[in-house]
Amino acid sequence: MRPGGQLRCRVEQESRDAHQVEANALREQLAQLEKSVEQEMALNVELQQRQTEQEKLLAQRDDVSSQLQEVSRANSRLLEQLTELGQEKDKLQQELEETRKAGHKRKAMLDRAGHRRGAGEVADYREELKRRAAAARGRRCWACRAR
């Protein structure tokens, strides 16, 4: 071969080698780009899943918050009722205590009055009971005779 032909072959070989190196570099870049795209797609899927989960959790939080508000209102109503019942109980206890005191005073007055009347009234009472018993026996007997 001629010296110029060798040079041309060598230049062509070098050019092919350079193109081959460039092609390999482009293939590697393309592979990395595809890998990056796949990773991005996987991350997008994961992001969507997390957003969906977050939306569910937010909805649950809203539900729980609403339930908490309802429970709080119910507790407030129960506390009001409990307070009213406590006040009513206190009032009734006070009335009961006042009634007991009045009853004790009346009993003491009646006891003192009973002691003053003394045995005479007791005897009169017994005599009246005997008279009524005799009258009741007499009516029975009269009824027995009528038969």
UniProtKB/TrEMBL annotation:
**GO CC terms of this entry:** extrinsic component of postsynaptic early endosome membrane; glutamatergic synapse; postsynaptic recycling endosome
Instruction: Note the InterPro entries from the entry.
Output: GRIPAP1
Highest taxon, organism lineage: Eukaryota
Q: Which GO terms describe its biological process?
A: neurotransmitter receptor transport, endosome to postsynaptic membrane; regulation of modification of synaptic structure; regulation of neurotransmitter receptor transport, endosome to postsynaptic membrane; regulation of recycling endosome localization within postsynapse
User: What segment(s) does the record annotate as region Disordered?
Assistant: 99-120
Q: What is this protein called?
A: Uncharacterized protein
